[in-house]
Amino acid sequence: MDTNWPSGRKTDWQEPVMTLTTPPFSLVGIDHIVFIVDDMMRALDFYRNVLGCRDGYSYPALGMEQVWCGNALIVLWDVTHPGGTKAAPPVAGGRNVDHICIATGPLNHDALRAHLAKFNVTIEQEAFHGGARGMGHSFYFRDPFGNKIELKGPAEYPDGRAENA
Questions:
Q1: Domain for residue 162, yes or no?
Q2: Cα(61)–Cα(39) distance, rounded to whole angstroms?
Q3: Locate the VOC domain: which residues (predicted)?
Q4: Residue/partner pairs of 117-122 with CB below 8 Å, 24 or more apart
Q5: For 76-85, which contacts have Cβ atoms below 8 Å and span 24 or more sequence positions?
Q6: CA–CA gap between residue 70 and residue 73 (Å, rounded)
Q7: Alpha-carbon distance 27 to 103, whole Å?
Q8: pLDDT by residue (tens digit) across 5-53?
């Protein structure tokens, strides 16, 4: 089936049948994104000086530095640092993103688990992690292409992070 888009682009694929569902959470925006790097000083120089990001949190034992990009964090994780062993090594062609974190409104954990299960999405990890809005409950899973997604609810206790956003 040929589809003409407003942009004039023509495709020969058939549009998937879309079933709209209402998930048991509201999207707020991007909380943070984690980039795998192999030269922390070069990475910090780029994000600070080229993009104008402000210094965020520092986790020297992990080889991790965070910079503020507006109200979201860009996390730089150095795979050459001894503390960066959990970070995946960079892949040829620039595929070096560990995961993207999507901030949500308040989460009903059981409803979220049921919602993901309905779509055969396997939760790989549930954890209590920090992010741009502070410490909160996170759910990790993968999209159909293998990209790791973190859904992160609001801060559950103040740690000062949300005040810096």
A1: no
A2: 16
A3: 29-154
A4: none
A5: 76/35, 76/37, 76/40, 76/43, 76/44, 76/47, 77/34, 77/35, 77/36, 77/37, 78/37, 78/38, 78/39, 78/40, 78/43, 79/36, 79/37, 79/38, 80/38, 80/39, 81/40, 83/59
A6: 8
A7: 6
A8: 445 555 555 666 677 788 999 989 899 999 888 889 999 998 999 888 9
- The values of phi and psi at residue 115, to 5°, are -60, -45
CATH code, domain carrying 138: 3.10.180.10
Q: What is the pTM of this model?
A: 0.67
Q: Which two tokens stand for residue 122?
A: 């396997």
Per-residue tokens: 117? 């299960």
Query: Which domain range does residue 45 map to?
Result: 22-154
Residues 42-93: pLDDT tens digits? 999 989 998 889 999 999 999 999 999 989 999 999 888 998 877 766 666 6
Structure tokens, 111: 């409803």
